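As a warm-up, study this chain.
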Amino acid sequence: MNKKNKHIFIIGMMGSGKSSLAPVLSKKLKTPFIDTDADLTSILKLDTEEIFTTFSEEKFRILESTYFLEHIKNSQHIYATGGGIIINKKNRDALHSFGTTILLQAPIHVIYARLIKQVEQSRPLFVHSQNKKTIEDIWDRRKKHYTECADLIINIKNKSLATIADEVIGFINT
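Now compare it with the structure written out below.
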């Protein structure tokens, strides 16, 4: 299967723009997109923070992984994944096997600034502490997995969604 026929997985830290980029890519590539966090919260009728509180982060990760691994068996989609999708080895293996994986990367201060503006959104790993150190710690724990999964790393700082989408499309078409 060539790159054009596989899924496109968008990975990265919370606040990196995965959910914003997916619909732009979807429109340009005429390929449906899925926001895994939005789908899970819709299915469970709970926001992410409520899922973490009601069940636990561990249970959320199990649900996320189960949903993801089942859904990628379907026809081609663009996936805006949850920031923690790369924690599970089976998910990382699937990212390698079932598509092209794009890492949206930005300096911590850029991610932090975005998250502060979006603090009312359900971001359970950030909302209670709201400090840059939290973001740095999460990045430090996940960086290796993000970079190992990525077929393409895009630094998003000072780039429009259209520019980022064009970079992805250019990569996929090579």
